[in-house]
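Hi P.,

Sorry for the delay on this. The queue was packed all week, but I finally got your sequence through. Input first:
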Amino acid sequence: MRAIIIDDERLARTELRKLLQDYPEVEVVDEAANADEGITKIDTLQPDLVFLDIQMPGKTGFDMLAELERAPHVIFTTAYDEYALKAFEVNALDYLLKPIEPKRLADAMQKLHVAEVKENHIIPENFNQSILTEVDQVFVKDGERCWFVKLSDIRLFESVGNYAKVFFGGNKPLILKSLNALEERLDQKTFFRANRKHIVNLRMIEKIEPYFNGGLLLELKGGEKIEVSRRQTVKFKEMMSL
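Then the structure:
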């Protein structure tokens, strides 16, 4: 498993490297001293795991995650315990307080192993390709709230000007992405552009009904009713027929 350590304190990075020598399955491929450097190295090296400090000059660790297209597994490392709740709200694997104790690192490594087995390697082999598939995991940030979300759990994207509202579970955060930009990145086998304002997850459709002017009306698992335009209805029927 390839890992990157992102921390503005050189001594902290060095100490963590030493502790990780007891875990030969983890290969530390690089380090970064700030969020911007971390983003570049994650994009280039495509690690499976990131040890991430929260309080760094400029952007925080949470800010950095919000800029990633895909999110690897994350273990937060920080000297401040007030971020613990927020760290677990974004489904981080663990939250280690500095100085890191060997036993706490062992616990984190065990959680990593369980997550890898349970999720069957959530970071797919096509990590460096441009298309996001339903098995990919993305980081969604809306104000102070943030989530790790599997694309398979997202049932709907809705255009709101240059933003998009993301529907998953009971959440509807707003992200700084246009619907057109999202459409270019999403796998068309799973996500369908129903009309000018909506992209739906085909696996989240519960009911299909004829609708006005030759279109269709889709009812999603969350209860949303989305109209398929007449033009897109032709494409939809072609896709869904034998």
